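User: For my dataset I need records formatted as: sequence, then structure tokens, nothing else. Please produce one.
Assistant:
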Amino acid sequence: MSPGPARGRTSGAEGGKPRRGPVRRWQLVRAGSDAVPPSTRRFMARARQRRMRAALPWAAAAGVLALLGLVAWTVLGTGLFGVRAVTVEGAQLVTPVEVRDAVGVPDGVPLARVDLAAAERRVGALAPVERATVSRDWPGSLVVRVTERTPVAAVPQGAVFALIDRSGVAFQTVGRRPAELPLVRVVRPAADDPGTRAGLEVLAALTPQLRAELVDVSVESLARINLRLRGDRTVVWGDATRGADKARVATSLLDEDADRIDVSSPDVVTFR
């Protein structure tokens, strides 16, 4: 008798293991436009527009700052706008080379970084210079405008003459006395010298008639100032006070036949 089929065996199974079906894989599929309601699409579009409008000022500000930074770096940090020339105007007693040396700005230094006030002080320290202005001339030049001192008197200094301006600054030495300048005799011509200042005060008080006759102003001391006039005449001036009164009185006595006129006290005048 032949054996029957074995019990407990499942059709289609091998080794007692159940048969499995095919493995399914998930896949992300982009929905079509028809899958999103129109109201949602409009909402999303408006939201994107609001975000773009909100970001636009920040983007513009960032662009401006970047541009300003680039310009500042170009002007201040590079030699693209550096000093390439120094132009000097108004210099006669000093040479342009002396002025350029006094400016003291090396070639290539960014023009925007030049300390103009410091350059003006250095040029103004030159003795013949009364004042100086330094300005920028883009893209690469400095312009120095010099105002030189004007002499008002000559001071004998041995065999030479020191020229002084209205402030008493001795700024130039010449070998011959300029014919158009009066002489002021002081020991040490200087802006801080009391004798120099007193002599200049006397000069400023003289009338045109006295100036035309003047040979020199001699300052022996602050209280002993004398004028020497043509014809070997002397005006005893005393100190520098009441200059206008003394000048008026001395001028009125120029026609007198007197070798010595004392106006040191203009209220009581003596002459002989």
